[in-house]
Design goal:
This protein has 142 residues and is of the alpha+beta class. The chain has one domain (20-138). Helix content is 26%, strand content 34%. The chain has 3 helices and 9 strands. The chain has helices at residues 2-9, 18-38, 43-50; strands at residues 61-71, 74-83, 88-90, 93-95, 98-107, 116-118, 120-121, 131-132, 135-138. Strands 1, 2, 5, 6 and 9 form a 5-stranded antiparallel sheet that branches. It has a two-stranded antiparallel sheet with strand order 3-4. The chain has a two-stranded antiparallel sheet with strand order 7-8. Helix 2 (18-38) packs across helix 3 (43-50).
């Protein structure tokens, strides 16, 4: 029975419509922007997002290869973040130009009418802000 529930929790999502995909992208961008300002425990994404901000021609940022599976409370999605222009610098540290990420999304309508938000967890023992479920690691060029 538990094995059946675990398999059911990871079933592929029926194809998302264009508006739903747009809402997922908006949720990702919103979480990245928030994390860049207040640091919601996603250090690499914070570096990635802020790299180039000190330069007049900030490189373009992109999301690609979005893939989602249904979960009991919403969706679990994987995606690639990449930035034009190669490795950058933010806060005096090298910032990767390509990240492989995953996040949990809750289905709920926010004040702007978007249907998805990146799930956040309560602050850790050290306090501070909520913790994003978006986790990223360096990705190979591709």
């Amino acid at each position: 029975m538990l094995a059946s529930l675990a398999l059911l929790a990871m079933v592929p999502v029926d194809p998302l419509d264009r508006a739903e995909i747009g809402d997922l992208y908006d949720a990702i961008w919103g979480d990245l922007e928030s994390n860049a300002r207040i640091d919601n425990h996603n250090r690499l994404a914070r570096l990635w997002y802020n790299a180039g901000a000190e330069h007049p021609e900030t490189p373009d940022l992109h999301i690609r290869d979005l893939s989602c599976r249904a979960r009991s409370r919403g969706l679990h999605c994987t995606f690639i973040l990449f930035r034009d222009g190669g490795i950058g610098v933010a806060y005096g540290e090298p910032a990767p130009d390509r990240l492989s990420c995953h996040a949990d999304f809750d289905r709920q309508i926010d004040v702007e009418g978007h249907r998805f938000t990146v799930r956040h967890l309560l602050p850790g023992a050290e306090g501070g802000h909520s913790r994003t479920t978006m986790e990223c690691r360096r990705a190979a060029a591709g």
